[in-house]
Amino acid sequence: MLTEPERESRDIYWLRRAAAEKKFNVQVNCISEYLASLALVGPNSRQVLSELTKSDVSEEGFPQRSTRLMRLGAVSVVCARSSTSTGHLSYELFHNRADSARLYQEIIRAGTPHGVVNFGQATMNSMRLEHGYKIWGRELTLDTNPFECGLGTLVDFNKEDFIGRPAALSLSKQTFDRRLELLTFDPADNSSVPLEWKNLPFGMEVVRREGQEERIGQITSGSYSVRLRRPIAFAWIDSSVQPNERLSVDVGLDCRLIATILEKIPHTPIQ
């Protein structure tokens, strides 16, 4: 099982508690201290991967949401193909921590002719926002449920029984006073406020209707989208807000940006 670093302790506790309550004959162990992960992301990632392994990494041989044990150069890895962090063609490479430097050097060597570069958290955040992906600790918390944040289709009620099924079924029939929306900030609407890094919404900023003072929402996370050439952010907003309403977001003392709701995600994720 893979989880976010921020959720590790909570998820281990939950699994162990569930195993004890259900009297399953299993052990739940954390192996994070032994493993590390590198991600190979982008349109040329399959080509780079193919130059490092004899395994079949074609679309047919290694489809989305599948995992393979393979060797990349001299390093054994568990390779998971997933786009859920970036929206792009991606491979997550789980390996022994002692092999991290060697694996990284192999990837750089094979990837340099294809333009491989390092990228960090800010870039990954921008990519996942452009593809409409929500993350734990920001859009997804213990105070949210799948049906109010647009993930209700992931709950499979065809399964006869699972922990939380009655509560989930009840929530699926309810309406909520808030919803999660993706906002964008058109430079033409914000000519009086420089769209520089210090004025971008990153999280916790208050959302209002344009020209009004009532608080009707809050930013959960945001970044600058290089592909859209403007800021982009997720926000919880009041359910009464109409799709075509103009909003304002507090980004500083007496400094507000005009925002609009995106009707659809800017870029379709790789499936």
UniProtKB/TrEMBL annotation:
Ranges of residues in domain GCVT N-terminal: 6-159
InterPro entries recorded: GcvT/YgfZ/DmdA (IPR028896), GcvT/YgfZ_C (IPR029043), GcvT_C (IPR013977), GCVT_N (IPR006222), TrmE/GcvT-like (IPR027266)
GO cellular component, one term: mitochondrion
Residue ranges of domain Aminomethyltransferase C-terminal in the record: 200-264
Transmembrane regions listed in the UniProt entry: none
Residues where substrate binds: E92
One Pfam family, short name: GCV_T_C
Family named by the database record: Belongs to the GcvT family.
PANTHER family the UniProt entry points to: AMINOMETHYLTRANSFERASE (PTHR43757), AMINOMETHYLTRANSFERASE, MITOCHONDRIAL (PTHR43757:SF2)
Name of the protein: Uncharacterized protein
Species assigned in the record: Parelaphostrongylus tenuis
